[in-house]
Amino acid sequence: MAAAPVFEVLRRGWRHTRPLLLLAATATAEQPGISAAGATPESRRQTAAADAELLLLGPAAPRPHALPPLPAGVSPALIAHAGLRELGLLQRTQVVDLGCPVAPAVPHLRLPGLEASGPAACVSTGQAMAPERVAALLQRGRRWGQHWPMGEPLLLAECVPGGTTTALGVLRGLGIAAEGLVSGSLREPVHGLKARLVSQGLAAAGLAAAAEPLAVLAAVGDPMQALAAGLLVELVPRGVPVLLAGGSQMAAVLALALALAPVAQRAALAQGAVVATTAWVAEESGSDLQRLLECIGDRWQVKPQLAPAALRFHHCRSAALRDYERGYVKEGVGAGGVAVLWELAGRDPAELAGACDRACEQLLRL
């Protein structure tokens, strides 16, 4: 693990980390063939609820919403659950529903009014969210960031089916040449389909490259991005380290925060927030997260940080976990960030793989 200052803070204070899972939805996920976060558009409507329940309740407990069928593999919420449980951080985990069609049947916060007014529209419309909703989410994130306890690092996770497409939309809208770099839940990212939907949306919204961040979010974004960017803009300047637990979606959040931040704060922002992802995303041949972060850095003259986890499943008994090594699922629900935090806590990645193996066997016995 790299020796950047933020990692040293996390090594000392990992026990005080607060995991925050943001659930959101977008009609982009209803496009056939765009996501593997559920085998059908209908099943993807309850993906976020099912993942939040697996994260908090675990594989052995009854869960009201069944996990949607996947082409292969198993929900990354299983990885996050196993890691947070073993680290003693599960009880510190908070879930926020930003307008999903199905609410999770576990304790969670659902925001009032505009902030939680249902799924975003498909990016192809160029009207993903009302500008008023974007402003309300961003302001909500800022307020949380302003009042966040100083001694509690944030592990920011997401579950947004269709979210890598909105990530591409935001990145392109902000002037990043992200085509072909963004990952996804499918074994082979569908770059052409995503690019076509995003191009339609940006054209419909009349946005040129390097547009204003709130306009980009309203045109082709999703609710998670708006609230997360607001949080990030306030937390890092206050000295709160942030693990952006994910891949392309968290890269888009970082890009939004950099676009929103004053010029004088951008370098510190890039140093105080780390994109923490799985090896399966970091090494994926069909995308390039490292290059994507370099493009973001070039755009705002900063050096974003990437921390790939060492967790691997080659030797797991569970075939569903070994599917990760075949290119399925790869990331989500904070799995990569939890695996990185595990290492920062001084734990062996092989131990986490064993905990995931046991959890997967429990899950498949039900």
Which features characterize this protein?
366 residues, Rossmann fold, 7-stranded parallel β-sheet, 15 helices, globular
Kindly report the spatial arrangement of strands forming the biggest sheet: 3-2-1-4-5-6-7
Tally of strands: 7
Helix content: 40-55%
CATH superfamily: Nicotinate-nucleotide-dimethylbenzimidazole phosphoribosyltransferase (CobT), large domain
CATH class categorisation: Alpha Beta
Mean pLDDT across residues: 93
Protein topology:
Layout: H1 5-13, E1 18-23, H2 47-57, H3 77-87, E2 94-97, E3 109-110, H4 131-147, E4 154-159, H5 163-173, H6 191-205, H7 213-220, H8 223-235, E5 242-245, H9 248-260, H10 266-272, E6 273-277, H11 279-282, H12 289-300, E7 305-308, H13 319-322, H14 335-344, H15 349-365
Parallel strand pairs: 1-2, 1-4, 2-3, 4-5, 5-6, 6-7
Helix pairs in contact: 2-3, 3-14, 3-15, 4-7, 4-8, 5-6, 5-7, 5-9, 8-9, 9-12
Task: Provide an overview of this structure.
The protein is 44% helix and 8% strand. With 366 residues, it is an alpha/beta fold. The protein has a single domain, classed as 3-Layer(aba) Sandwich (Rossmann fold), CATH 3.40.50.10210. It has a seven-stranded parallel beta sheet with strand order 3-2-1-4-5-6-7. It is globular and about 50 Å long. It starts with a helix and ends with a helix. The mean pLDDT is 93.
In short:
44% of the residues lie in helices and 8% in strands. The protein has 15 helices and seven strands.
